[in-house]
Design brief:
It is built from 2 helices and 3 strands, in the order αβββα. It has 122 residues and is of the alpha+beta class. Strand 2 and strand 3 form a beta hairpin.
Length: 122
């Protein structure tokens, strides 16, 4: 190795072409996976997850993109003398719904990628 030259140095004009070194058909597989990922992401926007919390006193409907669509409360849960309890219960229920939505999305996306992580591709 020449003095002062990095060990990973590749002279210009000798770098491999884009996609070189990939198995045959890999670029097509990656492109198909990207298309399926985009379709799954679009579907998650409208997929609804129903979550019940507080012993069934709260029902939250949330999308696969973590957008709350509706909240239903059992009237027995509403006590004008204990607003703080209702607020705390709602926060816990919404957080539970978000976690359920994230888990749903992760399962759907994992079905597309087969569990492999391809950073920067999606």
């Amino acid at each position: 190795m020449a003095k002062g030259r990095r060990s990973d140095y590749i002279p210009r004009g000798t770098q491999p072409a884009a996609g070189a070194g990939l198995q045959p058909g890999m670029l097509e597989k990656i492109k198909k996976m990207q298309e399926e990922m985009a379709a799954t992401q679009a579907a998650l926007e409208t997929e609804l997850i129903n979550v019940t919390a507080a012993g069934g006193a709260i029902t939250i409907v949330i999308t696969g993109h973590q957008r709350v669509q509706s909240i239903k409360l059992d009237p027995a849960l509403i006590d004008p003398n204990d607003v703080a309890m209702l607020e705390d219960t709602l926060v816990a229920a919404i957080n539970e719904a978000i976690v359920a939505s994230q888990a749903h999305s992760a399962r759907r996306l994992e079905a597309v990628t087969g569990g492999i992580e391809l950073p920067g591709l999606f």
